[in-house]
Amino acid sequence: MALLELKDLHTFFRTKKGIVKAVNGVSYSVEAGRTLGVVGESGSGKSVSAMSILQLLDGNGYIDSGEILFEGRDLTKLTEKEMYSVRGNDISVIFQEPMTSLNPVFTVSRQVSEPFIIHQGMTKKQAAAKVIEMLADVKIANPHIVAKQYPHQLSGGMRQRVMIAMALACKPKLLIADEPTTALDVTIQAQILKLMNDLKEEHGTSIIFITHDLGVIRQIADDVAVMYCGQVVEMAPAGTIFMGAEFSHPYTEGLMNSIPRLSTPTHTRLDAIPGAVPHPLKLPKGCKFAPRCKYATERCLNEEPEMIHVSETQQVRCFYPRKEDRHGKK
C-alpha cells in the first residue's frame, strides 16, 4: 500500500474576482522509500497540492473535496490540533528559501531543537546535544560552532542544510521538499541533492520533490508527476519519462525538448513551448494545454481528456498519448 495517496484533490482559493481552482482533481501516490518528483511551470499547482497535505494554506485557501490518505488515514478529516502531531513528526517540509523560513533572531540550535522538545519531549540540554548530531549528519563542518550562530551568519547552502536537519529531526516518514535548491548555485545544489539521496537511503524516508527543473528531477526522482493548470497530465517512473517512451503528454514532450544537451549542435535553437500558462480564472474549455499544443485538434479544444493508463506504470491525460499517432497531426 502507498504511504501517501492523493485522490481527486480539489484545493481552491477565494478571491475578489472569483474562485481560483489551483488544484483541480489531482491524484498521485508516494510509495514508501521512494522519491516522487512533481514538475511543471509556475502556477501549475505543484506547491499547493503539497501544502494541502499538511493543510498549510493561505487564509483564503481551502480543500473543497478529495482525499489525502497517509498510511490509510484521511488527513482532510483531521482537526488543526490533530495536524500538529503530524507536522514535523510524520511529515516534514523543506521550503524554497531558507532565509524566510529560519527566524533571524534565534540561534540555529534554538530552532533545530524545537522538534525534539515538542514532539519527543526532550529537555533543552538533551535537544541541544541532538542538534549537534543532526548538523553533523547533514555534513555541516564544525557543528558545535554553527549551532551557536544566527541564520545571517551562514551561507545559503548551510542554511538549507540547517532546514534539512530540522525537517529530519524526528525521522519523518515523508519529506516534502518545495524547490529546495532553486536559490542555490549549481555546485551547492549538487551537494544538497546528494545529501538528500544519502539521507533517504539511510533513513528510508519517502520524498516529494517539487521543482520546475527536469535536470534536478532526473538526479533525484524515482517516479515523476507532471502538472499543468492544477492537474496531473502525466505520471510515470523517471526512467520512462527520460528514456523516450512510446507514450507521453505533449506538455512533457515540450519540457523535454526545451532541455539543453551536450549533443545539441552549436547555435541550434531549443524548442520552446509557445504561449503562456492560462490565467486560473480563465481556463480553456477542453484540454487545458490545447491552446499551446501543436498537435491539438477540434476535439482537444472542446473536450477535456481523462487520465488513462497507457501501461501498467504510466498514465497520460491526452486523447493522443502515442507519439506516432499525433506526430502526423503537425
Summarize the structure.
This protein is an alpha/beta fold. It has helices at residues 46-53, 80-84, 98-101, 108-112, 114-120, 124-137, 143-146, 156-167, 186-203, 214-220, 238-242, 250-257, 298-302, 323-327, and strands at residues 4-15, 18-30, 35-39, 61-70, 73-74, 91-94, 174-178, 206-211, 223-228, 231-237, 308-309, 315-316.
Question: How are the SSEs ordered, and which strands pair?
Answer:
Elements: E1 4-15, E2 18-30, E3 35-39, H1 46-53, E4 61-70, E5 73-74, H2 80-84, E6 91-94, H3 98-101, H4 108-112, H5 114-120, H6 124-137, H7 143-146, H8 156-167, E7 174-178, H9 186-203, E8 206-211, H10 214-220, E9 223-228, E10 231-237, H11 238-242, H12 250-257, H13 298-302, E11 308-309, E12 315-316, H14 323-327
Parallel strand pairs: 3-8, 3-9, 6-7, 7-8
Antiparallel strand pairs: 1-2, 1-4, 4-5, 9-10, 10-12, 11-12
Keywords: ATP-binding, Cell membrane, Membrane, Nucleotide-binding, Transport
Family: Belongs to the ABC transporter superfamily.
Pfam family, one: ABC_tran
CATH class of the largest domain: Alpha Beta
Low-confidence stretches: none
From the spread of the alpha carbons, the general shape counts as globular
Number of domains: 2
**CATH T-level fold name of the largest domain:** Rossmann fold
What is the string of helix and strand elements? EEEHEEHEHHHHHHEHEHEEHHHEEH
CATH architecture heading of the largest domain: 3-Layer(aba) Sandwich
Query: Approximately what portion of the residues adopt beta-strand conformation?
Result: 15-25%
* Helical segment count: 14
Computed CA radius of gyration, to the nearest angstrom: 21 Å
- Corresponding CATH superfamily of the largest domain: P-loop containing nucleotide triphosphate hydrolases
| Overall pLDDT confidence | 89
End-to-end gap: 42 Å
Kindly name the structural category: alpha/beta
Strands, total number: 12
> Within the largest sheet, what's the order of strands?
6-7-8-3-9-10-12-11
User: Biggest sheet, open or closed, and with what strands and sense?
Assistant: 8 strands, mixed
